[in-house]
Amino acid sequence: MKLTFRWYGEGDSISLGYIRQIPNMSGVVTAVYDVPVGEAWSERSVKKLKSLCDESGLEMEVIESIPVHEDIKTGDGRRDYYIENYCKNIRTVAASGVKCVCYNFMPVFDWLRTTMHHKNADGSDSLAYSHEDFLKADPANLHLPGWDESYSAEELQGLLKKYAGISHEQLFENLVYFLNKVIPVCEEVGVNMAIHPDDPPWDVFALPRIISNEADLDRLFAAVPSVRNGLTLCTGSFGAGRGNDLVHMAAKYASQGRVHFLHLRNVLWTDDCDSFCEVGHLSGAGSLNMAAIVEALVENGFDGYVRPDHGRNIWDEGGKPGYGLYDRALGAAYINGLFEAIEYKRNK
Q1: Dihedral sign (CA 90, 213, 6, 53)
Q2: pLDDT tens-digit series, residues 85-130
Q3: Given 87, 234, 274, 334, which residue is catalytic?
Q4: Which residue among 86, 263, 277, 327 is the active-site one?
Q5: Rg of the chain (C-alpha set)
Q6: Considering 129, 323, 327, 334, which one is annotated as catalytic?
Q7: CB atoms near residue 337 (< 10 Å)
Q8: Which of 56, 59, 99, 122 shows a CA-CA span of 20 to 30 A to 273?
């Protein structure tokens, strides 16, 4: 496997120099963040990121993400214009050595939590979702952690109105339309598309979610059979859905060569509904058997890109919730140990 770390570009509080010091770290996962969604990235911007990574001894082989414009998801407006720009962006990043693009097809919100500072028993804080608190939210006057700075009230209401009447079937058809345009470009330039699951994996505010479970993935891969059409297996996102068998899914999609990217994190189910909080990566810290998931991946041929996903904020570290250095570095060390032990056992 290739261990990677999310890096938000030159504005990130965590330097490439710090990331480079994490044992076995091969590269970073990044993107161009100063271009409006749907517009073409400049070759100069991508090459600058690549140069910074090269100078730090880190690869830049995964982009997370090239965002999908809402017109593509709804299938209206300037859909084909934005898809054309998306194809341009794939060619641009491929020219700088990128081999995998992580993306999602979630309407409006590509993640949702009810608090970004849940206090854990160990004194750390992390992102969490309380179903009880979610039910109290007023769709006509939404204020969600992490999203108030992304949308104005008017923009958000406009987007919600845009999706009124969009069914699961229509959203899925629009995803297939998008991929049928994009995947031939990926095959031409050698890039894998790795769709990220819904986070959390159920409908929110009447917005349809279509990549939430095994059946959804099977349907997608049947509709667009190319192996360039693959998956970001995010254990935390799928793991929030209590009906998802992560060990089985890891084995199944790794054996098909569909797992192009792996986000490893644990979640702890906190009540009898859908509530959960994010915890340390260790299996014993949460509700997911991380060791069994990784073993299923290794035993079925996975040898792709991995990153420690959201961490807790620990040791009084500030900064972006879920994306501090300390706990993600601990997660990376744990991931190293899991893979080394399982591969050693397998090859003994």
Answers
A1: negative
A2: 999 999 999 999 999 999 999 999 999 999 999 999 999 999 999 9
A3: 234
A4: 263
A5: 19
A6: 323
A7: 12
A8: 122
Contact (CB, 8 A) for 191 and 93: yes
What is the enclosing helix (H) or strand (E) of 263?
A: strand 259-264
Residue 158 main-chain phi, psi, to 5 deg? -65, -40
Phi and psi torsions of 309, nearest 5°: -85, -160
CATH topology for the 2-347 domain: TIM Barrel (3.20.20)
- 20 close to 45: Cβ distance less than 8 angstroms: no
169 class by beta-carbon count within 10 Å (0-12 exposed, 13-18 middle, 19+ buried): exposed
Sign of CA dihedral 37, 170, 240, 272: positive
Residues 6+ apart with CB under 8 A from 89: 40, 41, 66
Judging by DSSP bridges, how do beta strands 305-308 and 259-264 pair with one another?
parallel
Name the residue with tokens 């299996």.
Answer: 283
- Whether 234 is catalytic: yes
Told to judge if 263 belongs to the known catalytic residues of this protein, a careful annotator would answer yes
Question: Which one, of 267, 237, 266, 332, lies nearest residue 5 by Cα?
Answer: 332
Catalytic residue, candidates 82, 103, 186, 196: 196
pTM of this prediction? 0.95
User: Catalytic one among 103, 260, 310, 334?
Assistant: 310
Q: What pLDDT, in 10s, does the model give residues 142-190? A: 888 887 667 877 888 888 888 988 999 999 999 999 999 999 999 999 9
